[in-house]
User: What shape does this take?
Amino acid sequence: QVQLVESGGGLVQPGGSLRLSCATPALTVNYVVAWFRQAPGKEREGVSCVSIGTGNTDYADSVKGRFTISRDNAKNTVYLQMNSLRPEDAAVYYCAADFPARICSFPLNPANFGSWGQGTQVIVSS
Assistant: This one.
């Protein structure tokens, strides 16, 4: 397991933007890092993922074209840029790491991710 620390959540109006950050230790190429979210009363769902080794990314259909995942290996940080936010995007967002893994692809199974951050809350409201 590795320690993951999320930050960047907050309150934003519909149509606004937020950037979430996930600070990680230095990861080898055999990690996939993903963002999940969980709204009250709903199951945890995958939002996006990135392979540390290959750089491939994937997204849930509900966020394609609005969210962008990226990684900065020098800073050991994975970002989730969220644009055009909608009320239904409101949730606690979690960063998670899967090891060993080389390719990220949907659907994401939370059970495959052995390391989780504490979560950061995103509220989308006017």
User: Anything to note?
Assistant: The mean pLDDT is 96. The chain is about 0% helix and 45% strand.
